[in-house]
Target: Glucosyl-3-phosphoglycerate synthase
Amino acid sequence: MAVDTPFAGWPVRVCPVRRAIVVTGDDDCNRTGAASIIRSTSRDDKGWNDRGRNTGDDRGSSNVTHEVGDWLRRRSSAAADWPVDRLLDAKRDTRVSVVLPALNEAATVGDIVKVIRTELVERVPLVDELVVVDSGSTDDTSRVAADAGARVVHRDDILPALPAVRGKGEVLWRSLLVTDGDIVAFVDADLKDFSADFVTGILGPLLTDPSVQLVKAMYDRPLEIGDTIVPAGGGRVTELVARPLLNLHWPELAGFVQPLGGEYAARRTLLEQLPFPCGYGIETAMLVDTLRLVGLDAMAQVDVGVRRHNHQDEAGLGRMAAEILRAVERRLRRAGAHPAEPNTVLTQFERDETGFRVRTHDIAARERPPMATVPEYRARTRLVER
Model:
């Protein structure tokens, strides 16, 4: 059953079908083969500011700026939209490299490599190069990855004249020196229940649309604590640090469901122009710098379902947050200064049975002036003194 709800200032209809965060035309939600979960039921678009930002619902409204709403319609898709045979037809002579940065991931890296090797190298020739870059593991990560079929390169052996520093961004940056793909896909090495959709999904828009430069995966991130699973409870730094910062200073990027996700692909011609923070600031910086270089329309996201992985403790999350803040601060400084008036709308996402739903919140966080400056208070004080 379809449910009407506003989206980007449009009344829209949410339909029980497979694709995530896409708005299309006025056709019937029950049409066979319908591919989107959000469909416009009216073209009477008066603008999201005119409709108000705060609905009174603690969950927030589903209004986003027209730029973000339009981007969500055109640049969000699902892994199912990118079947392998379609990608092979589009690939032609494009070379594809897949890179797994790894540090003590012997428990998971082998299964990931096997899936990619079996399904996307041997069964179909979609991936030309599968590389694991080991950044100093003390377990059997390198051996397990090599046995599973990856080419293993050690971080310190890449550009040895430049002493390596710790951090994920350092590994990704150095990986560009030991790969030759026209498109480079990055996949974290700690994923559980890995499927080839993580790779085919992020490759799809790049192989089929030459205007796309960067594609991020989006997914649910359950938080697993012992035997307890909190659905969509992962991504704590995303919700507490990265998303608020991006919404404040780069609201064009508010449509990314998983801005810190480690699964993304980009054209080498873009990657070689980007600075790489050496640590956890890499994902945030890459979004901001890509926006600056090529614009929002050159970016896309693909729903790959659920992402299960190892989680860090609070101290680790704190370090991650600090590095993200540093990357943001550096980019604001390069831009000249903090914006005089930052954006005051926070865009978040919820998953329901139909896909991701947009929720926006007013975060203006207004302040009152010192009471001593309020005339009524000053008058009252004078009365008391008398």
Notes: The mean pLDDT is 80. The chain has two domains: 3-77+353-362, 83-334. The two ends are 69 Å apart (CA to CA).
